[in-house]
Amino acid sequence: MPVNRRQFIVSSSAIAAASALDVRAIMAWPQQPAQAPPQTSFAAIRETVGYFTGQGGTIGYHLDKEAIVVVDSQFAATAKICLDGLNERSGSRRIDYLINTHHHGDHTAGNAVFRPVAKKILAQVNCPRLQIEAAAKAAQSAKPGAPPPAEQVVANATFENTWREKVGGETMALKHYGPAHTSGDAVVTFEKANVVHMGDLVFNRRHPFIDKPAGASIANWIKTLEAVVADHRKDTIYIHGHAGPKFQPTGGSADLLYMRDYLTALLEFARGEMKAGKPRDVIVKITDPLKGFPDHGPLVERVLSAAWEELAA
Ligand SMILES: [Zn+2]
């Protein structure tokens, strides 16, 4: 749980048709915004850092008198609500950095909203290429008569392994730990506030999306979570990309290690089923909960097929 957690309801709807927890938002992108106005909220975390939830991956931000950094941009509709809320707090100052933790549409489709006010959009070097490739693929497989694909606004500044810079009274450090959720993931640390945005390296107690076509690696994802914990302090607060319905989008290192254990168990389970001689088509249809991880609910095809693909390679 975050320290000094305060909720600011910016806008809400009785119909929470599309929440930050909507897995369809992760899987089917680029996509149209939800019909009903999405439920959104701002919450302070520590010092100058807070988070915003709406539709798609959790947005993190640093805001002080000198600088503004926004981490991820959700979809256009909630990006607009987020930007309006930040403008209220900052007196409509320009944003120094919009960071994309990775290329998925529920973290980047709002880039277009932030672009006119963001001095730079920063991401790991593979991220813009993956975003363009994924959009082209989605356009190719779109049904006839589908609305034209949204324009892709990609990062215009990139880093390969690390990036560190003073932003107002804060120092932000970005690090790429190798392929994990995609092959273009960035972990964003606000050093003074001691808060880290994990992007989709943490799905807190819910089945993750493992983007094999974009170079995901479950084995290196496991190592990455351990390395991130080792690189930070015991009392570091982490912002998670997504969380299960009963769980928070922020937490501590225990959440990262729980995610590590889940991924380890997922690989072990798939390995056991393969060793038992079961074919792929049978394995990916298994719906028993993963032993020891009841909060995740029944297993789903997207994680089993990713595990199978990784082990079969
Ligand atoms: Zn993602």
Question: Could you give a short description of this structure?
Answer:
With 313 residues, the protein is α/β, with parallel strands linked by helices. 30% of the residues lie in helices and 22% in strands. It has nine helices and 16 strands.
Spell out the helices and strands N to C: EHEEEEHEHHEHEEEEEEHEEEHHH
Characterize the overall form: globular
Strand-residue proportion: 15-25%
* Associated small molecules: zinc ion
Provide tags for this entry.
single chain; 313 residues; alpha/beta; eight-stranded mixed beta sheet; six-stranded mixed beta sheet; 9 helices; 16 strands; binds zinc ion
Architecture overview:
This protein has 313 residues and is an alpha/beta fold. It contains nine helices and 16 strands. The longest helix is centred in the C-terminal third of the chain and has 23 residues, at 253-275. The protein binds zinc ion (ZN). Residues 102, 104, 181, 200, 209 line the site of zinc ion.
Outline the fold blueprint.
Elements: E1 7-11, H1 23-27, E2 40-46, E3 49-53, E4 59-63, E5 68-71, H2 76-90, E6 95-100, H3 105-108, H4 111-114, E7 118-124, H5 127-140, E8 157-159, E9 162-167, E10 170-175, E11 187-190, E12 195-197, E13 203-204, H6 218-231, E14 237-239, E15 242-243, E16 250-251, H7 253-275, H8 280-283, H9 301-312
Helix pairs in contact: 6-7, 7-9
